[in-house]
Amino acid sequence: MKNIAVVCGGFSGEQEVSMRSAEFVLANMDSSKYKAYKVVIIPEKWYCELDGNKFEIDKNDFSFNDGNGKVDFDGVYIIIHGRPGENGELQSYFQMLNIPYTSSDATVSALAFNKAYCNYVIKALDVNIMPSVHLIKGNPYDVDRIIAEVSLPCFVKPNSGGSSIGMSKVKKADELAAAIEKAFAEDNEVLIEAFFEGREVTCGLVEHDGEMVVFPLCEVRTKTEFFDFDAKYTSSLVEEIIPAPIPEEVAQVLKSTSVFVYKKLNFKGVIRIDYIFNGDDYIFLEANTIPGMTDQSFVPQMARAHGWSNTELISAVLDPIF
């Protein structure tokens, strides 16, 4: 039986969501093949939470001593949303230690986490994206020039991050500067994107037994101005429809585009790609390399609609690393 560290926590505002995702992974891991340990990584310390006790992780080799001896890990299930689990930092660490892990490698993770850089690559693949402006903290910016490039309304968001933390929808020119500063409070880079009217559709997929498995698409309908943090984690504010009620030919385009992007960017494990569809065209929004894994998260819901149990989903992510 292999020892698996389910690594959660993180250094961002998504820490709580990561902890909830970890509980789902721990509860649904195949106990006939794996012995799961909850490992928390937060700015203050790294520790393994076991039987109500907290044992410090030795960062030299990613092990811990439970009082009866040293415990090593055969593999790692990374379920940290945001830093340091989604941006390549932990992936680099585990690669140096030669410990197999779920998720894409360090380079691919870092690319997907940086929305602006990822957009450059996606655009080069001839996949539709929205006009955008990329800002770096400390560099001057001109509100009028930004509006000329993306027009209004527009979305302002931290360039690297998730759960829509620090994100704003700007409708008036005099709101833009404050929205930019709000985003800069979360990140040193900001992405400002043009608004595209349409329906939000998300696609989950994973490579399993040498073949791409694409789950039924999900349409997201929210009662808020946009799909913000509150809508994402308050069930009364959002409606998730699986399968998405869109024309079959459109669904096939989004699925085939997702497979194309997955292979071209060399993603690993389960990912989720978000789109906006307006009836005639679609826009790539972003790729999530470590999507949420709570019972109500998109990917588990889509996997269940595909006919998989929660344990089958976790196994499809974990089994291939060995």
As a percent range, the share of helical residues equals 25-40%
Largest sheet: 6 strands, antiparallel
The CATH superfamily label of the largest domain reads ATP-grasp fold, B domain
Instruction: Tell me the name of the CATH class of the largest domain.
Output: Alpha Beta
Low-confidence stretches: 226-234
Mean pLDDT level: 92
* H and E string: EHEEEEEEHHHEHEEHEEEEHEHEEHH
Written account of the structure:
30% of the residues lie in helices and 28% in strands. The protein has 322 residues and is of the alpha+beta class. It has three domains: 2-101, Rossmann fold; 110-128 and 198-321, ATP-grasp fold, B domain (D-amino Acid Aminotransferase, Chain A, domain 1), CATH 3.30.470; 132-194, 2-Layer Sandwich (Dna Ligase, domain 1), CATH 3.30.1490.20. The strands form four sheets. Strands 12, 13, 14, 15, 16 and 17 form a six-stranded antiparallel sheet that branches. Strand 5 (64-65) and strand 6 (70-71) form a beta hairpin. The radius of gyration is 20 Å and the shape is globular.
